[in-house]
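User: Predict the structure for this protein chain, please.
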Amino acid sequence: MKEELKLAVTDYLRGQDFKGSIPIFSRETKGLYQTLDFQFNKYGGSFAVNLSLLEPNNQFLKRPMSKQKILASRRLGSLSRHLKNKQNQDYWFRFVKGSFFPTYNYKKAAQEFIAIYSCEAEKTFEYMLGEMST
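Assistant: Here is the predicted structure, written as structure tokens:
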């Protein structure tokens, strides 16, 4: 992944109290254990971001993700689409346009991620918490 995308995203998430690095960031906030996981398209050119709530434990930030129990998970950007279309759709951040003559725009993908994160991430975490309590 291009350094400018990595730096912009990492700096922004650090400002949101996340620890870690791409592909996985974690934080504890308001007694909730949250992760943000970047999932890169196996064919390249885009990524999606999965938000998860984890079972509380004393070793949250030290324990590997494979040892954590995920209580709820949802893709960033899918909440508003879910409510509008009554479907849980994937949202992919594209950083490559074109197939034969590709152009790369990592900065635009980072800006799009930050814009959607700032509008929807907290609502999505709250929505998942609500789903767990019903």
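The chain has a mean pLDDT of 82.
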